[in-house]
Amino acid sequence: MAVLNPVADHVSNGKAKAAHVNMMTDTVIANLPPDALRSIVRGLLGFEQNLTLHFHDLAAKYLSETKPLLSAPSKLFSKSSTSLVPTESFFETQSRVRCLMGCGFGFESIRTLTDVLQEFTSNFSKKIVPDDQLLNFLASIDGDIVQAVTAVQKELLTVSGVRAMAASEQDIIKSLKETLRSWSSLQAKEQLRFAFARGMNRLAEFDGGEIALPQKKQVISQPLVPRNHISETVHLGSLEVPRIFAGLWQFSSPAWGTASRAQINTDFRKHVDAGFTAYDMADHYGDAEVTFGQFRSAQPDGNEIACATKICVFGSVVVTPEFIDSNVNQRAANVEADRIELVQFHWQDYNDLQYIQAAKLIADHPRVQNLGLCNFDTQRMDELVEAGVKVVSNQVQFSLIDLRPIFKMAASCRKHNVKLLTYGSLCGGFLAEKWLNVPAPNLFDKNMTPSHRKYFEMIEIWGGWELFQELLTTLSVIGKKHNTSISTTAIRWVLDHEYVGAVIIGARMGISQHVDENLEVFKFKLDGEYQETIQKVLDKCKATDVFSDMGDCGAEYRQ
Length: 559
Hints:
TIM Barrel; 2 domains; two-stranded antiparallel ribbon; 21 helices; 46% helix; NAD(P)_OxRdtase_dom_sf; NADP_OxRdtase_dom; oxidoreductase activity; NADP-dependent oxidoreductase domain-containing protein
């Protein structure tokens, strides 16, 4: 793991300050609806990074000082003769577990999940029918185990590497493994499908020992349907891939829903059969690497499926050949490959100039085929290229709402032959028919995701909901003339910039997919008339102000 997160380790050591909150403010806090309070807190956290650190401090303190919700047995599930249904207490416990993960209490979240599963197993009987509701519930727990393992890995990180687990911590991991094995035995006895394959795979990462090279797995035997070949491809160094990547960021949080391993693999195969053979993931996207690696290694055409993963350094580290070697080997082991087609490098602190050494070591590593960057600004990308580092791509945010790459990054890409891999090109799903002619959303409705909340804020600073409606109307008119959608038209606009190599479109594997719609992108291009029509709307937006206030590409992650 290369992910270092200073938030989890932050401890406020500033001087004592007045704690008074005036009565009117307290009254507002006490009476605001929860959704409004969440929205306001999110707005406050956007002002400066220190507020986020203090928020995590206070949230961690609250979690430490509140008693666990598991105070008595048999309260998390309601049992009848044929069903076992989670109660409100279960969902409260699940919310607490997810807060524990986010605040750096990885081991405590594992321990709580173990308690939940033990109670579930003790209440399960052969008379209970595993219907879709129950299977979806088990998939959500499986997804929580995946995220809890990531939280534990972050908890173990130090400046010099990964510390060893204490005996008590090993016992926590062992207890969850034993509980899952008990459930596995019960499921086998009742001839049920094992529900926690993703979680067990992640827990196996704690088995210790050297990172083993991937072993060949049995290839699936059923014949493949003839695969579609996408006409538009891009060369990224030695790699040739379609100009649309499937993005696996959604593996990083249960907020987008959870699915079983079988459901996920089915959707992976649909994407590959449609010609989408390039996948973007990262070392901290839950079990994205492992799930992708196990899928690809079982496919007869696996050598035609490309992996673009990341090494992300968010905190203080000492860069050495051993540090880079360990992280590259872990990425390769996770995706079950001897070499990785594209490793994208993110470095948080530009004041720490070790990023130049780190990039060189990654680029020169024998198991790395090509080096890309992730959220590097123009100045630092130029520094790396001019230092002799071969960079083939830079992954940045680019859309009709976030135009920052046009200002500086585009010229550098042309000069150095670096291609952009763009994310956020659909604004978290806002660039779609469902948002046309509707009022601005409540950001904390049950169907709103973290992506919606992030990109709604971008829309607000770009020009607001009214101008956004004008943009959607324009895209709708153009889309109808090409017999396609708003989303497809928005992606096409991004791809029509020659310095863009590919657009990364998030895929909620096993939950929802838009394979056929995404293929529509390659059936047309926007000619001058349509480009001008779109530009008339963009001329009204605050793109220059956004660039001035937010900074160059990736700056929002470093403020």
